[in-house]
Amino acid sequence: MIPHLPQTLCLSLMFVLVCGSLQAETLQEMLDLGVKQGRTAGLHRAELHKQQAVLGAAKAGFKPKFTVSSDTTDRRSYSVQEQLATATSLSGTLTEDGDGGKFEQLTLSQSLFVHNAIELARARARWAIAQIQYEQSMEDFKFEVIRKFYEVLRSEERVKTLQESVDRWSTSLKFAEVKFELGATNKIDVLNTQVNQAQARTGLLEEQQALQRRLDELKDLIGVPMTRPVTLQESLEFTRLETVPVDWVRREVRIARFEKRLAEANLEDADARSKPDVRLDATYRSNQNSTLVLGNQIINTGNEEIIGAVTYNFQLGRRAEDFRMDQLQQDLITANLRLTDQELEVQREQRDIFRSLALKEQAILTSREAHDQARESYSFSLDAFQKGIISSLDLRDSQEKLTRARDIYTGLLIDYKIESYRYVKVMGGTL
């Protein structure tokens, strides 16, 4: 069980870039934008639609096909054909001429062993796999948007931290200058404080540039123009993680299961084809000739017949299908091993994510205490500096500890938030 922090331990993070509109956009709104217009999301959808077309083509092969034809002699022909299974077909033809002649034929061709629709089964399995792969790709994409989103917030928090550092050095510099004018300190303390302030400003400028770069990366990822005003808002709170629903299954495992089923279907089909080829063909024909007029009598001549045949083909020695069975048996063994490996890998990742969350919660508690202690230490150090008890070098050390403590604390909060989303992804949920 993962230990949970009290509800009172939270940090609200607000990132607002004043680039025009001040309407804040949440993480969910960023995800919706990315899914709707991101280039990566568009590529995933295109691949899914291509696989859907493959399934449509396979289905078309097992649907009735109607044909109507006519020629200049007023002869009309109607035909229908349907593929019932891989080696089973039914067809019918009706032909009429302009003189009343009619020809009808109904044919059934049936293999006694190959009675599946393996082409359609393969297409359906691949379509199911393609859908799961699409979901997985979109989850990876959404997690990348989440990561970029929080990296922007992380950078914004660092800007705040460094800005506070600059402000503190500005305050320290004023004290140092006043003490120097009063003769309570030497010029070195003033110069050291000025150097520290300049270094803090340099660090602030560098982080501000990094902030703009990370914001551009987020815009590019979700597919919005670089010139579009963007404001982000997010609140970080520690909330108890809900129990994983029992129906959550990792997509990698679901794909591996479908691949195993596909390997089984291919092996069953090859086994059927490896048997002797025994085929039943049955045809019904009805032929009615054109009307004849002999004297005062109208004569219609015609005939009907039913033809049936059983064909038995047996090839001596091993056929190509026999060798293919050997290959497909190995494919099934491989699919079973991959499924087992995938399930074990998922279990390992799930154990790791629980441990990671527990460690991060403990780290946040510790870093919060360290931050509070560093702030208190800085307050005492600043007071001692004002009284001339410590030098600017001692104050610098206290100041850097406070800056580093705040940076670590806010960074851990953001890491925990990202890890919470990774938890959903690792457990097989939807972001």
Describe this structure in words.
There is one protein chain. This protein has 431 residues and is α+β, with helices and mostly antiparallel strands. The chain folds into two domains: 327 residues, Outer membrane efflux proteins (OEP) (Up-down Bundle); 86 residues, no CATH class. The protein contains seven helices and ten strands. The strands form three sheets. A six-stranded antiparallel β-sheet has the order 2-3-4-5-7-10, with no helix packed on it. Helix 1 crosses helix 3. The chain is elongated and about 130 Å long. It starts with 9 loop residues before the first strand and ends with a helix. 20% of the residues are buried. The N terminus is likely disordered.
